[in-house]
Design goal:
With 279 residues, the protein is an all-alpha fold. 78% of the residues lie in helices and 0% in strands. The chain is built from eleven helices and no strands.
Length: 279
Amino acid sequence: MLSILYGIASSLSWGAGDFAGGLASRKVGAYRAVLYADFFGLLILAIVSIFYRESFPNSNVVINSLIGGALGTCGLLILYHSLSIGQMSIAAPVSALFAALLPVIFGAVTQGLPSAIQFIGFALALAAVWLISQGDGGFHIGKLSDLKFPILAGVGFGCYFIFIHNAVSDPDSLLWPMILSRLAGTLLVFLIVLARREPLPVPHGAWTVALINATLDLGGNFFFILASKAGRLDIASILSSLYPGMTVTLAWLILKERISRKQVIGIALAFAAIYLFTI
């Protein structure tokens, strides 16, 4: 039950963070918004480390954390690239689906097959991720090559789930995996922003939303790690992957954006999946 509650908390925090990140992207652009979120998140972790002392981890934790952080950031950058070249109708659902599906396969191999009820829950949750991630535009593929970048983005996100799970399998590791993964992501985005010759300073009007985005994104990572430590990787990952539902809901409540019928069905399926996981 703890794993389920943490997974839900992760999806809520990540979803709200994506909403704030979308607002930040409108002010400073996508790449700088990611850089600010990673950098401020790293500063928050540095402050927390002063009060929460944790011994430096072994090489296995370090390697898994760095690789997971780099791959997760690569997935995000590939997703933004896919969106920028006009693949919005397929980028979100395909990347979200593979982000959830990859840890399910990995969990089945390493932790054994889930129960029959959980299998049904996985199917409903994957359908929910797919439907929630689609807007009014529907799903249209011109050719199979259009799936290349969305799949790569989803693989990046899914690998992040797997590598961070491996990193926190050490019972004494909690803070350092977050710091190291965030450090790897920050350095990667920093180099890309430099290469694009974008200005580094945070504009005066973007400070608040950038800090909120960083805090919520960090919260999503924190609750995912707790969910991963408390239970199965596949359940933690698929519940955390329901974050688009929170983003869509906030856009509806605050920005008055319309929720499509598919998204309403997806949210309903998500609740049904969560119920099956608790049985």
